[in-house]
Foldase protein PrsA
Amino acid sequence: MSKKKWAVGAAGILMSLSLVACGESSKTVATTDGGKITQEQYYNKMKGTQQGKQELQQMILNKVLEHKYGDKVKESEVNSQLDKYKKQYGSQFSAMLQQQGMTESQLKDSIRDNLLLKQAVLDKTSFSNKDLEKQFKSYQPKVTVKAIVTKDKSTAETVISDLDNGQKWDTLAKKYSINSSNKNDGGKLPAFDNSNSTVDSSFKKASFKLKNGEYTKTPVKTKEGYQVIEMVNHPSKGSLNDHKAEVKDQLATQRMNDSDTLHNVVSKVLKDGDVHIEDKSLQNILSGYIDTPKN
């Protein structure tokens, strides 16, 4: 869940910052038979580490992003992305969280952080007509399909032959599909567009060629196996003006993966955020993003 230079670190590492600033530096964090550890000691130790500095950078950026773009990121959007992760990983979702050292709540926070940063990219980068027109060439609106997944090509060819002979799609899905999660629903999949990175590229290419009600006449080889695809709903692509918001969103997503673009966006956001570092020993923590104040 990293965001280039602005990586989401372990939550809470520098939460003592606010308490120290409020004059509660003597509060005890832990006690041992060798003595106690105060919040001030903990703070002074952590602020000198790279991990501690990265966490503070992230906290500062998130505060500014939340203030500027918080009303543009809805809870429903965060939950929607969380649900996609849960569907993608299925029974392995908890194991994935454990491997990443995260709780579900921390994952939600990370999703929100990324969506806030995406809003900043939309706001702080320009989208020329040339950029939009280029992206629109590869743009496809979200389609809904059904898929029957088989282990081998010959089984997929049998499915196609049975369909050609008038047998029902849903009946064949129950009989042949090895995808137990959706075979009883005819193999129906969540809607996807050209930017969806979780869908196999061969699968997307074959799907986008189909009209409503059509199915692939040759098996489509993917990492899951050999698939037969039926188009349920393929909306008309229309014109760029019909989908300008979606195209801009796709471009913004691409720019989120470019470190130079993110650096420039973060720099602009922090400069607009009127950030002041009160701890003199941390004055240079945002060096390279905003000018260091002269004392």
In short: The beta strands are 28-32, 35-38, 144-150, 220-222, 225-233. Confidence is low (pLDDT under 50) at residues 1-25. Residues 144 and 233 are 5 Å apart (CA to CA).
